[in-house]
Structure formats: structure tokens, C-alpha cells
Amino acid sequence: MLRTVTTAAVGLTLAAGCAPDSEAPVKVSVLSRSSNGQYVPTQVELTTIEDVVGLKGSVGDLQGGARIVIDANDPALQNATADTVAEVLLKNTGYDVKASYITQKDAKTGEDVLWPADFHSWNMVTSYYNLERANEYFRTVANVKGASFDPAPTLYYFPDFIQTQVSKEPARDNAIFYPVLQAFMVLPFDKIQRAPLPLNAAVMAHEYSHLVFNRLAYAGQNLPVSLSNWSSESPSQGANVLKSFDEGLADYHAYGATCRSVSGCDPRFMATSFDGGPYAGVTDARDLSRADRCMSALLWNRLQQQDVGTFSSDGAEYQVGTLIATALYQAGRSTGQEAQLQRDIVSAYYDTDPEKPGIYQYTQQVIGDQTLFSLAVPAAAIISHISDLELRKAVCNEFMDHLRIPREWLIGPSLCPASAAGGTTCPNIF
Ligand SMILES: [Zn+2]
Fold first, then answer.
1. Residue 247 C-alpha to ligand 1 middle, in angstroms?
2. How many CA atoms lie within 13 Å of 373's alpha carbon, on the beta-carbon side?
3. Which residue among 199, 226, 242 closes a domain?
4. Stretch 15-44: mean pLDDT, rounded?
5. Ligand 1 centre from 418 Cα, in Å?
6. pLDDT tens, 304-351?
7. What beta strand segments (E) does 130-218 contain?
8. CA of 44 to the centre of ligand 1 (A)
9. In this predicted structure, what is the pLDDT of residue 22?
10. Which of 316, 342, 349, 429 could disulfide-link 297, Cβ–Cβ 3.0 to 4.6 Å?
11. What domain count does the chain have?
12. Is residue 265 domain-shared with residue 154, that is, in the same domain?
């Protein structure tokens, strides 16, 4: 239904005389999943918005009409530094979007509610709302401090995003957090026939999770030193492990965010966007509720022995990431401590306590030798941040079983208790 709208016009003008009051809180209607799982117009309150027409506030700033080109052969890009790379990539920085609304009186309260007047306005205001919800999840469930979210990221709405190594044509059908620009991109849709990705709150929470991982586990670096140093070497186990954890934790937090929605916890959150279309396989491949996923010898060897380009060429970081996410899902469910686990995981991203270093601190310890940064290292960072012993043991057992991390790598003071014996679901691969 939503696909019939053309994707070209972004800068929509506001009819004269109805410029709405912009200051938060603002009551608007967005497209959100109801308790029966359907996307329906839903009245919500935006609590962080500063400009409801330009869709700018403390959790993000929507910009339309941008053009971003990644050309690996561009000498300017090869010579770029962390400070200049954005200038090289952003061929057009875009402009403030303009959402248009019709003001309606709420039948019960008599208050003004802004009703988006066209498809892009629905899509844009819902994008902002979904950033706000993801931000709220990380502030409340994961206890992330407000300063970690500054400066507010830009969200490039329907940009031309071209990776010349992939295609000369702008990419479609994706939502991306792009750390180099410290920005989100919501690309135009083409083959996705169901809910566009920015309407899917869980997909936006997945992308928001990448922002949080960048701000903490990469200390907010737009070109993370650990990841870029390690990616320039071959093989690149450390880079492969970092990318796998970044993806797996993003899916686990996306799931966690669904538990705060009216439609409830949804381990198959891709379904409303991907089912019935050409990407339908993604829903099953990333379904967190499947308890029978196992690390294979092939995947383990690829993680250790491939360079990051080869490893990522078929999305192996998502395969390993799904093993991580399903292991965490099982541990959280079986102990009834999902929200506590989500909080503990994020507290493991950055921690200067030498007794229990964060993921960032571990990368700094072994920055000169990435063969030391195995799957067990970020796993250990997470485990040492779980204070409840039953939950800690459950995570240990799931990591030993489904990720096949050798038991002796994880047992130790402030790590796994000696009683953690792994599990019997997955076959030995060594
Ligand atoms: Zn991702």
C-alpha cells in the first residue's frame, strides 16, 4: 500500500497559516504497531522534539536530499583523516526536511494533535519517534548516560547513497548507522513491500544500538582505531569479532526494545518489513528464538583466518552475531532477567575498572596484536559485568555451548564460575 507513493519529493512545503507549535511535548500521530501487530495511526507524544516541522531534537536531526558517495579509489578519500573524511564523502549535505501536518482536536481531551498530511511526513515523523523510543530504551533499560548521546546524530532521510565498488546506482531498502558520519541513513525503498524500515521500531533500535556501541565500545571515534587498524591486516580476527558483536548485540537490543512496545516482545522483528518479499529469508536467519543454532568449524575458522572483507562478503558477521544474540536471548529468558542482562551488556562496553575492563579497554590492551582478541574477550567483558550469579552462569553456559568458546577461556575470578559446564545442544567442533 505504501509503495505506490513516489519517493522523489522530500522537501514538502507547509501550507501557510498552520505552522504548528514546535516545542516538546508535541502530540502527533505516527504509524506504530498496535497490540495485534498491525501498523496503524497512533497518537503519541514527542518529548525531545525542538522543531516538529524540521524534525530536529535532542535524539536526532532529519536532513533530506543529501548525497553520500564512497569511492575507494578517490585519492581524497585515501588521504582523508577522521576530521576531513565527512567532507570528502558528503557531496551534498542536504537540507532541513519539512513535514506537513493537519491539526486535529483530540475528541476526548480537546488537545491539538498533529496529523501528518502526506506519506513522507508520516514516514519522517515516525522515524523521529522511533529514534526517541530507542534512545529511551538505552537511557532507561540500559542506563546509558545522556552525555553519551551528544552530539545528536543526523538522520539522512532518503539520501543518494552510493558505494561505487557495489554499484553506480544509489542503494535502496536499508537503514544504516554510518559511524564515519556519526549519522543514520534511511534509504528509499524499492523491493520491500511491507513496513518501510524507518517505520519498523525494532529496525531503528538495531541501528540506534550501533550508535551506542560506537559511542562507548569505540569511544565515539568516527574511524574507530581498533577496527580500522585491525581491518588493514590479514587475517583480521579482532575486526571480525568486533563486527560480529556489534551486529549481534544490535539484534539483541532491538529485541529488548520490542518488549517495551504495545505489541510485546518479538524475537522475529524483521517479519513485518521482510516477510513475503525478496528478503523474506532474513526473518528466519535472524530469528532470536531458535534454540538450536551452533557455531560450526567452518565459521570459527573463517572468524580466525579471514580478512574482514572476505569475512563480511557474505555477511558472516551476521551469522556469528545471530549466535551471540540467540545465546543472550536464551540466557535472559531462562532466568527471567532479560532487562537486567540488557543493562549489564551495555555496562560492559566501556569500563575503566581494571578488575572488569570494558570492550573498549580490552581493545586498547591488545591493539598491537589482534590474534589476542578472540570471541572470548568481549564475551568475558560482558560476563564480568553480570552481577547476578545465576544470570552470569546462564550466559556462560550459552556462550560455551552455542558459540563453542572453550570452557577454560571463560572460567576465572570475576568470570564464569567453575560450575559452568557449557551445554549439550551443540556438537564439539575442535
Ligand atoms: Zn547492523
1. 5
2. 29
3. 199
4. 79
5. 34
6. 999 999 999 999 999 999 999 999 999 999 999 999 999 999 999 999
7. 154-157, 160-163, 175-178, 183-186
8. 27
9. 63
10. 429
11. 2
12. no
Same domain as 224, residue 176: no
Q: How many Å lie between the centroid of ligand 1 and the Cα of residue 234? A: 23
Residue 322 Cα to ligand 1 midpoint, Å, equals 11
pLDDT band with cut points at 50, 70 and 90 for residue 193: low
Residues 402 and 417 in one domain: yes
Please give the distance, rounded to the nearest whole angstrom, from the Cα atom of residue 206 to the centre of ligand 1: 6
Q: Which of 129-138, 262-271, 402-411 has the lowest mean pLDDT?
A: 262-271
Residue 5: pLDDT band (50, 70, 90) is very low
CA of 285 to the centre of ligand 1 (A): 14
Cα of 318 from ligand 1 centre, angstroms: 8
The verdict on whether omega for the bond into residue 25 sits within 30 degrees of 0, i.e. cis, is yes
Q: How far is the CA of 375 from the centre of ligand 1 (A)?
A: 18
Provide mean pLDDT across the span 362-372. 98
Ligand 1 center from residue 176 Cα (angstroms): 7
For residues 334 and 428, state if they share a domain: yes
CA distance linking residue 27 with residue 14, whole number of Å: 18
The three-state (H, E, C) secondary structure of 40-89, written as one string: EEEEEEECCEEECCCCEECCEEEEECCEEEECCCCHHHHCCCCCCHHHHH
- Of 199, 218, 253, the one marking the end of a domain is 199
Q: Are residues 184 and 225 in the same domain?
A: no
Instruction: Kindly indicate the confidence band of residue 20, based on its pLDDT and cuts at 50, 70 and 90.
Output: low
The three cell numbers of residue 141 are 533499560
pLDDT over 80 (residue 8): no
CA of 354 to the centre of ligand 1 (A): 30
Q: Which three cell numbers stand for residue 78?
A: 585515501
- Taking phi over 0 as left and psi of -120 to 50 as alpha, with beta for the rest, 118 belongs to beta
- 320 Cα: distance to centroid of ligand 1 (angstroms): 12
Range of the domain at 414: 200-430
287 C-alpha to ligand 1 centroid (Å): 14
pLDDT mean over 2-14:
34
Do 186 and 210 belong together in one domain? no
| Cα(237) to centroid(ligand 1), Å | 19
Are 211 and 194 within one domain?
A: no
288 C-alpha to center of ligand 1: Å? Answer: 15
